[in-house]
């Protein structure tokens, strides 16, 4: 297990290093000049040159990359070119919305997908299985922003149970959680449908294995064999999907955040791109990529916990 953990940690470090280089290079290749954007098209050349020097944009890109990476390693992500505030504080403020939203949506997706997938697998080929898989197909194809607007229309406009949008902050935890319920449901529905279909397929394949038939021959019922033996062995592809879903929910919910006017991380990146705020784009995207890589690392550890063969390979 120790050697497995060391290998995964080395891969984690190398992935983060390569990701930082790629992110910086891609942002540098994007056309447009932040100084020109800030001053406008009528700026004088000397004023433009002075601002570029003040922002450090006149330095060669290796020096700017080294300065940015050094700041990242020390926790200083620099200052926003547009708002002139620390980028780290902006990202932390947005994570206070995006992270709880992603966790709520993922927890809801897993809570829905597990019983649906297990029920469908236990009754494969029957009417219940067909009906559930048809419903999950609708869930996969349903646009989450359209479903979000339906939720607003029903629960916020007609019933007035939940707020239609906005985020009041965590000074009032109950109001903050209420503001995240509808977006979490909108995000969780398609993810639950995908996860249920993957779980059902993995369980159907696992239930055809010889050890399941042996367990049944020893007197276990179909439900006991599914819960005690098949479920654990079917979790590896499910863990992969869960890791990918969390990464998507953390940073890929830009449209849903705009529907509910949530100041999340995805909306911050979108605004920074439109304003040519390169330092915000670089740092926020690096945070997103680091979250994906770290979640992948945790999923690998979960693999080893579920399948002991990986620990001794």
UniProtKB/TrEMBL annotation:
The chain crosses the membrane at residues 99-121, 142-161, 181-199, 234-256, 284-306. It is found in: Cell membrane. Pfam families: BPD_transp_1, BPD_transp_1_N. InterPro entries: BPD_transp_1_N (IPR045621), MetI-like (IPR000515), MetI-like_sf (IPR035906). It is a multi-pass membrane protein. The keyword Cell membrane applies. PROSITE patterns: ABC_TM1. Its main location: membrane. Residues 95-299 form the ABC transmembrane type-1 domain. Keywords: Cell membrane, Membrane, Transmembrane, Transmembrane helix, Transport. GO terms for molecular function: dipeptide transmembrane transporter activity. GO terms for cellular component: plasma membrane. Belongs to the binding-protein-dependent transport system permease family. This is Peptide/nickel transport system permease protein. It comes from Paracoccus laeviglucosivorans. The lineage of its organism: Bacteria, Pseudomonadati, Pseudomonadota, Alphaproteobacteria, Rhodobacterales.
């Amino acid at each position: 297990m120790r050697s497995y953990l060391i290998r995964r940690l080395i891969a984690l470090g190398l992935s983060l290093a390569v990701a930082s280089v790629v992110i910086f290079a891609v942002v540098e290749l994007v056309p447009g000049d932040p100084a020109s954007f800030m001053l406008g098209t009528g700026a004088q050349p000397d004023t433009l040159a002075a601002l570029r020097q003040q922002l450090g944009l006149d330095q060669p890109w290796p020096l700017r990359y080294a300065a940015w990476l050094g700041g990242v390693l020390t926790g200083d992500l620099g200052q926003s070119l547009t708002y002139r505030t620390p980028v780290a504080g902006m990202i932390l403020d947005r994570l206070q919305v995006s992270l709880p939203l992603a966790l709520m949506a993922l927890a809801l997706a897993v809570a829905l997908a597990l019983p649906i997938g297990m029920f469908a697998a236990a009754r494969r080929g029957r009417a219940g299985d067909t009906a559930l898989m048809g419903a999950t197909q609708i869930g996969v194809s349903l646009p989450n922003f359209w479903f979000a607007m339906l939720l607003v229309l029903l629960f916020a406009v007609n019933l007035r149970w939940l707020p239609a949008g906005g985020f009041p902050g965590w000074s009032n935890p109950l109001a903050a959680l209420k503001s995240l319920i509808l977006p979490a449901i909108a995000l969780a529905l398609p993810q639950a449908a995908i996860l249920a279909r993957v779980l059902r397929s993995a369980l159907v394949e696992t239930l055809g294995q010889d050890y399941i038939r042996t367990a049944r021959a020893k007197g276990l019922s179909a439900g006991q064999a599914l819960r005690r033996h098949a479920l654990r062995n079917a979790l590896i592809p499910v863990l992969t999907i869960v890791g990918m879903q969390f990464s998507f929910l953390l940073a890929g919910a830009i449209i849903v955040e705009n529907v509910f006017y949530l100041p999340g991380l995805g909306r911050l990146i979108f605004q920074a791109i439109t304003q040519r705020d390169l330092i915000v784009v670089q740092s926020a995207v690096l945070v997103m990529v680091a979250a994906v890589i770290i979640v992948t690392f945790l999923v690998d550890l979960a693999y080893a916990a579920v399948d002991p063969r990986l620990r001794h390979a």
